[in-house]
């Protein structure tokens, strides 16, 4: 329809995409075979790509998803595996009308398996450079730290020589915080964020996906992040809604993810209307598209179906996304 075309053509920025979450079941099984990685034999979901796909349709929570997410990424071994994964994402991004992408990855989930950080980064960077040249899609990389692991491990991962080199060279722009949320409060990562801030890195954190609104305010006050990933629980705190609107903090909202992981019952319960009415800035993103059955354009379409937004509202959402991006001002002007 013309509306689908309109949504497709909007110059989208994606700010919340885990590269490991772009691993399709097809590629997962191919790499498991090629790299000789044994998948769990005691879980029937791993019998075939089709069975696994089916299992993905009945996640019960963030942690239930994360269990499959960490097993899935265990098939990624060589730089070429990481490159192919990111390249696969960029193909979808191109057809969905993405112009600029800020991409998360989880270094600790690979170094803990004996994969060197430089291998991961090399693969991702190769795909990003190719996407810029051949597809005209600009991108930035963001290392996320895993909140379910002991805090000292995030600090030593941050201090790793190869990781530090990637920050200093500008290969990686900022840090994020992801994985299981409840019970892993922002405060635990104050020192990590203080170090990153001192180095001039950009800062974001997952907050208020499953966890309480106080994790959002604590991420702002203690971690001093400049944006919030998810943030949907914000809607339960009217005062905090006003603050986020006033301070123009961008939320990177992932509507399909929120439904699939049972954070909300249906798309209409994602507080899109609340955010629009209060002047809260947000972008719409896909999170882990291969696991949740929808890339960014699917998220745009589902939001449109649920909220029947006007052309003006869509244009303001897309503009907020460009303005909230971490790319150079010159790039933003090209996109506006
Ligand atoms: N890692 C990958 N996707 C995630 C999500 N939606 N929340 C927390 N950690 C994640
Ligand atoms: Zn996420």
Describe the structure.
It is a single chain. This protein has helices at residues 2-9, 25-34, 49-56, 62-72, 79-95, 107-111, 117-135, 151-159, 161-168, 190-198, 213-223, 238-246, 255-260, 272-278, 289-292, 296-307, 311-323, 329-335; strands at residues 12-18, 98-105, 138-146, 174-178, 202-207, 227-230, 250-253, 282-284. The longest helix has 19 residues, at 117-135. 51% of the residues lie in helices and 14% in strands. By secondary structure, it is α/β, with parallel strands linked by helices. An eight-stranded parallel beta sheet has the order 1-2-3-4-5-6-7-8. Helix 2 crosses helix 3 (49-56) and helix 5 runs parallel beside helix 7. It is built from 18 helices and eight strands. It is globular. It has one domain (2-25, 80-335): Metal-dependent hydrolases (TIM Barrel), CATH 3.20.20. Helix 10 (190-198) links the parallel strand 4 (174-178) and strand 5. The chain binds adenine (ADE) and zinc ion. Zinc ion binds at residues 16, 18, 178, 206, 229, 287. Zinc ion (ZN) binds next to strand 1.
Topology, element by element:
Elements: H1 2-9, E1 12-18, H2 25-34, H3 49-56, H4 62-72, H5 79-95, E2 98-105, H6 107-111, H7 117-135, E3 138-146, H8 151-159, H9 161-168, E4 174-178, H10 190-198, E5 202-207, H11 213-223, E6 227-230, H12 238-246, E7 250-253, H13 255-260, H14 272-278, E8 282-284, H15 289-292, H16 296-307, H17 311-323, H18 329-335
Parallel strand pairs: 1-2, 2-3, 3-4, 4-5, 5-6, 6-7, 7-8
Helix pairs in contact: 2-3, 5-7
Bound molecules: adenine and zinc ion (ZN).
